[in-house]
Amino acid sequence: MSEKAQKQVFTQPAFIVFALLTVVGLVCWFLQLTQGLQLTNLNNYNTWGLYIIGFMIFTGIAAGSLIFASSAYLFQAMADYKPYTRIVAFVGAIGSVVAAGLFIIVDIGNPERAWYIITRANISSPMFWDTLILGAYVIIGILFTRQLMAVHAGQKEEKSLQVISVVSFVAGLLVMVTSFVFALQVARPLWNNPVEPVSFLAAALVAALSLLVIIFAVLNKSGYIHISADKLSKLGKLAAVFLFFELFVVPGEAAIGLYAGSGEEAEIINWLVSGKGAPFFWVEIVAIVVGLVLLFSKKTSGLVLGSAISIFAIFMIKYNLLQAQLLNPLITYAGPPGYSGGEGIYLPSLIEIGVAVGIISLGALLVMIGLDKLSLGIKSGQNIGEQNSGFRAKVEQA
Prior knowledge:
Blueprint: H1 3-7, H2 13-35, H3 50-74, H4 85-107, H5 116-119, H6 126-152, H7 162-173, H8 176-183, H9 196-222, H10 229-260, H11 264-273, H12 278-295, H13 300-326, H14 350-373, H15 384-397
């Protein structure tokens, strides 16, 4: 990034827009805090909504970012992406983890209750494990970013990254623990599924890789980094592989439920495929297919569009995973249904949308500030080999 561009980071249109949206999110959260969760469209049936979806997606992006950054030093096929790993690790450790954590804070209603996770910790709860992993992502991501910066500056050799790369890769795989919050609920037949952990991992990689395609394309256009169309295309194809897996999982679960014809899961699948949830399900399928096609595009514009649609597809997968099960409980509460129209559907309220947009915007602001202040871009023509040569030269001079 040029010196002129660096000085103008706080006046760039994108920064101003994200800052304004963050303020909007704070106002919406203040209203929610003072008037209660009744301002949302959550209720006794649909206890989890947009906030938990945001948590799942950004936890996945954090995990996927660690997996991608570490893979560049563990697998030769990914070595071409070494110059960009500092950006990837920073995006995962700061922007994504902060967003994921804030989504949990706003979901619990009273933020003071967040301390209960520590003061009343229940080590047998998957939510406790999830909290530990999210905290680990922050620590590991920051350490990994610092190590990568040291190597880039010629202060350390590349081989010093071996241990932290292995740790980061394993930590990223542990995103599957997030699925345990759902998969271990035996009274939720749609969730109580052994494929959920793998599906969560695939979704995490789709979201992370798709977001990186968008970020790299933007930074490349601004001159902050230099990345070839071939490398972007390779990222798109990697995202497509994992999205293709989701294309098997989603219709596969639906087909199994429909084949049974009756039973607890069959009722949920019928509600989702041909009932009140059908519009959301078919939007999800279309988004997956369109995203898959565009991720194989050779044009950067097509890749960016395909990446955005792929992230939306992951959003819809999580959206339907929640509402299909929560709005079709095995045992209903006494009294009138949660929604006046019967089972109904879940649509986030404007307050929920405002808070979610604010959190995402804050994460984007942190990433922009970090990219500007930490100078995580690469110089044209410089590579890791040149950096290590410089390091060895300094050692010899000493």
